[in-house]
Amino acid sequence: MSETTLIVIGVIAVVLIAAIIAVIVSKNRKASQASQTVSAVTPAGGSPSDIARSAPASAPEETGQTDESAESVKSAESVEPVESESPAKPAEPTQTAEPTQSAEPAKPAEPVRPAKPESAASRLTRLKARLANSANPFGKALFNILAQDNLSESDWEDVEDTLLLADVGAEASEQLVEELRKDARITGERNPEAVHGLLREKLLDLVGRDMDRSLVASRPRPENAGPSVIIMVGVNGTGKTTTAGKLARLFVAEDKKVVMGAADTFRAAAADQLETWGSRVGVPVVRSDKDGADPASVAFEAAKAAKEQNADVLIIDTAGRLQNKSNLMDELGKIRRVTEKTLPVEEVLLVLDATTGQNGMTQAKVFAEVIGITGIVLTKLDGSAKGGIVISVQKELGVPVKLIGLGEGPDDLAPFDPESFVDGILD
Ligand SMILES: Nc1nc2c(ncn2[C@@H]2O[C@H](COP(=O)(O)OP(=O)(O)OP(=O)(O)O)[C@@H](O)[C@H]2O)c(=O)[nH]1
């Protein structure tokens, strides 16, 4: 063989070997691409057909389905999420952890923590301002007349009319005009400050600055004295139930333990109303579920509960319908007697609507006769031009105004303070 022939054979052999190598490399690449595609669809390591079968199994209620095509649609859908094999997906279970947040229903505990009512001092300041802004400033009208020069006879008549319109009462009005006329400072000098000061003093005398207006339940008590019982009485609609609720808040603000008794069984909604007030400040309410139940038996149960619970105060709300005097006497008398089997009744508060003024006085007297009252709550003074009722009602009934209501809000009840009252109507 020639040298040239050997070289040709060598070249052919090299080309053949290179071709064989190229074919092998190309086959290997295709094979590896195919295996990568499969692993993308089977995250859990099974074959695609495995996933298609497991999907329906994960929905037990659907296992009865025989429609393969339907299943396959679902399984296809269920396979797709595998795309979401993106690292973000595994984080999702934390979303399912959200239900732990729904363990927040533990929050219902909150209502148990009732809102702390406004303190007596703070509500006094607020209520004084409200009184000054109310339709009650008969004091201002008086001052405007008295501060003029040379008061004529008709000016003095205006003074008396102003007092009568404000429901100060005929006797007290006459007395005040007489004293003012006699006073040299009014008839002589015209210094507005002196007139203002003098009028303030006279009104304070009439309102009664030295009366004991404290609630028996707020006075210092001997240890183990037991709950102090308050019965609320008055004509319907005067604000007994509302006042009972507000009063409970006042006591709660003083850190006292209170129980209320819904002995107004005449009006079905009254017990619900009282319960709503009670739940706002965390005060239990003893009530009957039967409309028209015996109010005395509710009072009895309430007294028992207050004693057992070692409460500081028991407030009993009554209906006090005024069909006739003997009827009322029977009902209120029985409530009192039955309560006193367990606890002495230390306070009976007559609730009077200031807007009815002198008209409410006749009925007020009946209550005073029937049960004997220890104090007056004058409600709705916010909407009344008849603040003078404070003076006349005390004169007629012989007991002090202890509390005043100046609105429908839960903290719109305050101890009656003569100075704040007079300043409120004069300033
Ligand atoms: N503006 C004002 N409204 C008040 C005041 N006190 C009570 N009221 C309103 O007077 C209305 C009657 O109040 P209640 O507490 O239901 O009266 P009640 O005496 O219990 O009535 P009966 O259960 O029918 O005997 C309610 O709308 C109260 O919100 C107050 O001081 N000012």
UniProtKB/TrEMBL annotation:
Bilayer-spanning residue ranges: 6-25
Molecular function as annotated in GO: GTP binding; GTPase activity; signal recognition particle binding
Localization terms from the record: Cell membrane; Cytoplasm
Enzyme class, broadest EC rank: hydrolase
Major location category of this protein: membrane
Keyword Cell division included in the entry's annotation: yes
Catalyzed reaction equations: GTP + H2O = GDP + phosphate + H(+)
Bilayer disposition of the protein: Peripheral membrane protein
EC number: 3.6.5.4
Chain residue ranges for the region called Disordered: 32-121
InterPro entries assigned to the protein according to its UniProt record, in alphabetical order: AAA+_ATPase, P-loop_NTPase, Signal_recog_particl_SRP54_hlx, SR_rcpt_FtsY, SRP/SRP_N, SRP54_GTPase_dom, SRP54_N_sf
Keywords, alphabetical: Cell cycle, Cell division, Cell membrane, Cytoplasm, GTP-binding, Hydrolase, Membrane, Nucleotide-binding, Receptor, Transmembrane, Transmembrane helix
Function: Involved in targeting and insertion of nascent membrane proteins into the cytoplasmic membrane. Acts as a receptor for the complex formed by the signal recognition particle (SRP) and the ribosome-nascent chain (RNC).
Name of the featured protein: Signal recognition particle receptor FtsY
Gene: ftsY
